[in-house]
Amino acid sequence: MARNASARSWRAWRKGSGRLSFSRMMTRLKFLGMFCLMLMGLHYLTLLYLNQGLRIIHNDSFTHVLHLNIRDKQISDTNGINHTPTYWTPFHRYMEKIKHCKKCPRVHKWEPYFAAYTEQLSRFRGRKVVMMEVGVQSGGSMMMWRSFFGCRFEYYGIDINPQAQQFASEWATIFIGDQGNPEFWKDIKKKVPVIDIFLDDGGHNMSQQFTTFEAMFPHVKSRGGVYVCEDLSTSYSANFLGQPLSNGTVQEYGRTGGKTFVELSKKMIDWLNCYFVSGDVMAASASCPPIFDGLPAVSEFKQFGYSLHFYSQIIFIQKERVIPPFHYMAGGYSFPYGYSTTVWDGNRYDAPAEAIIDI
Ligand SMILES: *[C@@H]1O[C@H](CO)[C@@H](O)[C@H](O)[C@H]1NC(C)=O
Ligand SMILES: *[C@@H]1O[C@H](CO)[C@@H](O)[C@H](O)[C@H]1NC(C)=O
Ligand SMILES: *[C@@H]1O[C@H](CO)[C@@H](O)[C@H](O)[C@H]1NC(C)=O
């Protein structure tokens, strides 16, 4: 009986005939409710599917990467030898999906980059993001990036091979030119918006990497943008105008000579600490001393060179306002630093409840 009644009112509702009685309204609500539940279920399943065993939880201060069941899944390298990945990321998922697809554009990367990309670039996912990549090659990485960043992704690709032009699309603009030529970059900067993520995966010789950094580091968004240079192994290869660390001893690692991108990034560590290089650990200088020399991009680094993230062969230089550091203190009760004979007054002091940040 009840089922018939509800089927009847469903038909009536579909036809749009009859006045809206209370019971019809309830039936409508039931259907709507079921529909919403179904949508929520689908949404949840999609999320599960997209993450495929990996969940990244953003938290005010932490990014938790949770590895679920596929933590130990093995992947094979270019020689068919199996390896355990650094850890599973959405990039691995993409790679495995296209692995046996003969007509898919090829992606060729060192495996540790995927964990590094995930850690450094996840905050851009799903947002409107402008990326510029030097080295379009066969159009493989641009597809991977779009799959990672989502449909609001905007891509600007640079390549020396005119064939790369064919990968232009609604979301991808391709420029053909030589990244080692400063004039080329002058022209590019007039044509593209400010960049969120710049990735140098081009010719990899030192002169190309330096010219590109000089020209484009200032064109990366000063608040929150990131400049990435990969395949830094070329800093050690004479074929790429780098210098091998011939015997790999500690002395050699400590050297400062050599105009290679790795040596430049070692210098950046001093730049990050520039307010303290005078030696007084408790008093930051009012301004950075003239340890910044050489590149025009350096004055940009002085203002916006916020943090460096090194991984094997890849560096992420994150931009954010750099301010002269200042002491920041709260609360009044304290021991002197280090060993002290000061006697505590016997009470225990806690922060007040309203100061506890509940997450
Ligand atoms: C946020 O980070 C804290 C500290 O690690 C952790 O205790 C808390 O569970 C995290 N919150 C979520 C939602 O993961
Ligand atoms: C390095 O790059 C520059 C600029 O693209 C190029 O002219 C030069 O031939 C390259 N040198 C080597 C050794 O690859
Ligand atoms: C390695 O290089 C350093 C610095 O040039 C040199 O002092 C050292 O003797 C070398 N070690 C070996 C084992 O060749």
TrEMBL record:
GO molecular function: methyltransferase activity
Superkingdom of origin: Eukaryota
InterPro entries assigned: SAM-dependent_MTases_sf
SUPFAM superfamilies reported in the protein's UniProt record: S-adenosyl-L-methionine-dependent methyltransferases
GO biological process: methylation
Residue stretches spanning the membrane: 29-50
Keywords: Membrane, Methyltransferase, Transferase, Transmembrane, Transmembrane helix
Name by which UniProt lists this protein: Methyltransferase-like protein
Source organism per UniProt: Micromonas pusilla (strain CCMP1545) (Picoplanktonic green alga)
Species classification: Eukaryota, Viridiplantae, Chlorophyta, Mamiellophyceae, Mamiellales
